[in-house]
């Protein structure tokens, strides 16, 4: 199976975990696209009833609305039962890097407001250690050159993310993305703590101690790794 087929298989599989009468966080990305598509089908068929979705991006919001899935803003729900999202890299302790799609601030807010989190990935995302995928940061434009210089001084190898026209990528909240191309991350918790204390950084892509179940797309079918925490 190619990478896209693996993504589709885990996207479809993950919908088995969505129960009727629940609030569901909808992640962002090409793997989640298949999950939302399948959820829409099962919702329209009446196999899953009375759900409310909370989106992590305008892309996922539009897709879900187009399929007739009732949607609410995070502010308008008192809890989220389950969030299903993709990831860019997952290490052997099930810590993750997210933000390849620049949606990590909203994704982290939805994930941390969810009772349970499932990540869906193809097998190429599984790694011994984090870091071969650059770590995304969302930074506010005000003073961003200072933020950048601080990251350089820490030897974290920052690079502003640019679009196809060479312009700085803007997030949903009109912030910039800086990717840290630092290589292997030996102490993700220490790095996360440092990043959490940098004033100009709104969110970083280290998602630590968050995921409960991981579904990995493998050539012989999706592998469900339950209750990792
Ligand atoms: O974190 C994300 C977006 O900010 C995505 O979940 C992550 O980039 C995985 O995307 P894909 O499923 O397209 O490989």
UniProtKB/TrEMBL annotation:
<dbReference type="GO" id="GO:0004751">
    <property type="term" value="F:ribose-5-phosphate isomerase activity"/>
</dbReference>
<dbReference type="InterPro" id="IPR004788">
    <property type="entry name" value="Ribose5P_isomerase_type_A"/>
</dbReference>
<keyword id="KW-0413">Isomerase</keyword>
<feature type="binding site">
    <location>
        <begin position="28"/>
        <end position="31"/>
    </location>
    <ligand>
        <name>substrate</name>
    </ligand>
</feature>
<dbReference type="InterPro" id="IPR020672">
    <property type="entry name" value="Ribose5P_isomerase_typA_subgr"/>
</dbReference>
<comment type="similarity">
    <text>Belongs to the ribose 5-phosphate isomerase family.</text>
</comment>
<feature type="binding site">
    <location>
        <begin position="98"/>
        <end position="101"/>
    </location>
    <ligand>
        <name>substrate</name>
    </ligand>
</feature>
<dbReference type="InterPro" id="IPR037171">
    <property type="entry name" value="NagB/RpiA_transferase-like"/>
</dbReference>
<feature type="active site" description="Proton acceptor">
    <location>
        <position position="107"/>
    </location>
</feature>
<feature type="binding site">
    <location>
        <position position="125"/>
    </location>
    <ligand>
        <name>substrate</name>
    </ligand>
</feature>
<dbReference type="InterPro" id="IPR050262">
    <property type="entry name" value="Ribose-5P_isomerase"/>
</dbReference>
<comment type="pathway">
    <text>Carbohydrate degradation; pentose phosphate pathway; D-ribose 5-phosphate from D-ribulose 5-phosphate (non-oxidative stage): step 1/1.</text>
</comment>
<comment type="subunit">
    <text>Homodimer.</text>
</comment>
<dbReference type="GO" id="GO:0009052">
    <property type="term" value="P:pentose-phosphate shunt, non-oxidative branch"/>
</dbReference>
<feature type="binding site">
    <location>
        <begin position="85"/>
        <end position="88"/>
    </location>
    <ligand>
        <name>substrate</name>
    </ligand>
</feature>
<comment type="function">
    <text>Catalyzes the reversible conversion of ribose-5-phosphate to ribulose 5-phosphate.</text>
</comment>
<dbReference type="Pfam" id="PF06026">
    <property type="entry name" value="Rib_5-P_isom_A"/>
</dbReference>
<protein>
    <recommendedName>
        <fullName>Ribose-5-phosphate isomerase A</fullName>
        <ecNumber>5.3.1.6</ecNumber>
    </recommendedName>
</protein>
